Amino acid sequence: MASAMFMAVLLTLAAVGALASDPGPLQDFCVADNTSQVLVNGFVCKNPMKVDADDFFFSGLNKPGNTTNKVGSSVTTVNVNKIGGLNTLGISLVRIDYAPYGQNPPHTHPRATEILTVIEGTLHVGFVTSNPQNRLIFKVLNAGDVFVFPVGLIHFQFNPGHENTVAIAALSSQNPGVITIANAVFGSNPKIDDGILAKAFQVDKKVIDDLQSQFWMDNNNY
């Protein structure tokens, strides 16, 4: 009985793990066919006989992103929209550039865990655990340091130094998605009722109106 229960637990954990990431490939590759009008969870496969090396290639990650914006950072995304060969492989990559005192604002990736490596400079990073603890887990990273942001949790990075910082991050989805908290809450289209937000944040409606009047820029280059 005990062994049967143990096996049942293992099977349940395996099923949960399988559902928590992109579907696994059932063939060598399934290069995204961006010309197809068929909508599926991912992309339709390109004819494998028409696939070549360029379907698995991206150039330009050595080029710094433009950090002359309100938040002082730029995220260069290399996902399935940039490399069709990533379709069904459950992985993607980003380069993040930070100006001095720049930040990658609090955000989440609804479909991926992120593992980040600092290439040069210093970063103050952290994520917040879910309710009810809402515990902040944070660390100061230097070149060569690695940090993990669990899937779905709000996280951020901030460059506290006088020099530019560069990081590379891998994510466990071909298309992780990103929800920047301030943009989503105060920059939604149409706007969320200011009374709802005033009550949620326990502030005056004028504060919400002011926040909703701002231009909430996106620092991601999709």
UniProtKB/TrEMBL annotation:
Its main location: secreted. Residues 59-209 form the Cupin type-1 domain. One of its GO terms (cellular component) is apoplast. Pfam families: Cupin_1. Mn(2+) binds at residues 107, 109, 114, 155. Residues 1-20 form the signal peptide. One of its GO terms (molecular function) is manganese ion binding. Oxalate binds at residues 104, 109, 114. It is found in: Secreted, Extracellular space, Apoplast. The keyword Metal-binding applies. The keyword Manganese applies. Keywords: Apoplast, Disulfide bond, Manganese, Metal-binding, Secreted, Signal. InterPro entries: Cupin_1, Germin, Germin_Mn-BS, RmlC-like_jellyroll, RmlC_Cupin_sf. Disulfide bonds join 30-45. Belongs to the germin family. This is Germin-like protein. It comes from Acorus calamus (Sweet flag).
